[in-house]
From TrEMBL:
GO terms for molecular function: metallopeptidase activity. InterPro entries: Metalloprtase-TldD/E_C, Peptidase_U62_metallo, TldD/PmbA_sf. Belongs to the peptidase U62 family. Residues 103-326 form the Metalloprotease TldD/E C-terminal domain. GO terms for cellular component: cytosol. This is Metalloprotease TldD/E C-terminal domain-containing protein. GO terms for biological process: proteolysis.
Length: 342
């Protein structure tokens, strides 16, 4: 069951705090901004702010969702700061003028989307079985990264979006370590795929009755030892991959869409900003490029659902920065939904 916002005086105080945050956002961004608050029947509270008409890759937007109105209210100041920064950088950016190759530092937000698409969906048991049937050379126990990357799925992590106590098949949810220091160690299963988790479902079956599938929920990357400034210094010259605007995976590829990317020279951020941009690469190849894990941490309890086979579920991404020793950036409009270049 959901953790509903506390009633009575405490509940009114939370509502007032949230309303005050939304008024502040309206004052900062003006009448052109779209600011929406919604509450589902199960108690999930969503806030979404968009700075103008919806234009994918061009209009800054931010959102948060949680089963706790106080959590949502506390996240609003950070959301306002992020939107201000994104608005400034979008005004400053110039187009990506062809492929840009080199080292890249994934911001925690971008890293979260990358990990969700690359490791989360790949570790869903039905996707794993489909990949095996298609002849993939990746199997449980293989090494994904040389860097000590550890990824867990924690469905019981309240009050985040996507959290739950029992899955839609009634199985108690339990945490699963997908990667341990770069090794593929676990899969997310439901009743039909429980043989892949020792004969017992991990409690990740989500979806309509009779059509539940294994789904990731609250995906968390363990922080590493490198502060962000050290990651920039290690990179030397390359790109900071900033605010993500989308991501998906198809045919073994991972796609990451970005509102802006920023040039790094001599281990320092420059004023050169480009975008919108997209990264598209084979999952195994890009994962192998992870060379360091940041000590920072960002939680994105997302208002945006994750859709699989037409069914949408909530999700949360918790991640530090990730350093790639190489990736290729392209203009966002150069890639089709099939992962092919125009």
């Amino acid at each position: 069951m959901a953790d509903r916002t506390t009633g009575g005086a405490a509940g009114r105080a939370v509502d007032e705090l949230l309303a005050a945050g939304l008024r502040e956002a309206a004052g900062v961004f003006g009448p052109a901004a779209s600011i929406a608050r919604r509450e589902r029947a199960d108690g999930l509270i969503r806030v979404h702010i968009r700075l103008g008409p919806a234009r994918h890759g061009h209009t800054p937007q931010w959102g948060v969702a949680a089963y706790d109105g106080g959590y949502v209210a506390r996240e609003l100041p950070d959301g306002i700061r992020q939107l201000r920064r994104d608005r400034e950088l979008v005004a400053q950016r110039v187009p990506v003028d062809g492929p840009l190759a080199g080292p890249a530092l994934l911001s925690p937000a971008a890293a979260g989307v990358f990990v969700h698409e690359c490791f989360g969906h790949t570790s869903e048991a039905d996707n794993y079985l489909a990949a095996q049937a298609a002849g993939t050379d990746r199997r449980l126990g293989d090494r994904w990264t040389a860097a000590p990357l550890t990824v867990r799925d924690r469905p019981g992590a309240r009050p985040y979006a996507g959290s739950y106590r029992r899955d839609d098949e009634g199985t108690p949810a339990r945490p699963v370590t997908l990667l341990a220091d770069g090794l593929w160690t676990g899969l997310l299963t439901h009743r039909a795929t429980r043989r892949l988790s020792g004969g017992r479902s991990t409690g990740h079956g989500r979806g309509p009755a009779g059509a539940a599938l294994p789904r990731c929920s609250v995906l968390e990357v363990a922080p590493g030892a490198c502060p962000p400034a050290e990651l920039l210094r290690r990179m030397g010259a390359g790109w900071l991959l900033g605010t993500p605007v989308g991501g998906w995976s198809v045919r073994g590829l991972v796609v990451l869409e970005l509102l802006w990317v920023r040039r790094v020279e001599g281990g320092r951020l420059t004023d050169e900003v480009r975008g919108p941009a997209v990264v598209c690469a084979r999952k195994s190849a890009l994962a192998a490029r992870i060379s360091a894990v940041g000590s920072d941490r960002m939680v994105h309890s997302s208002p945006y659902g994750c859709v699989k086979e037409g069914h949408e579920v909530g999700s949360t991404l918790i991640s530090p920065s990730l350093l790639l020793d190489r990736c290729v950036l392209r203009p966002l409009d150069q890639l089709t939904r099939s992962g092919r270049l125009r």
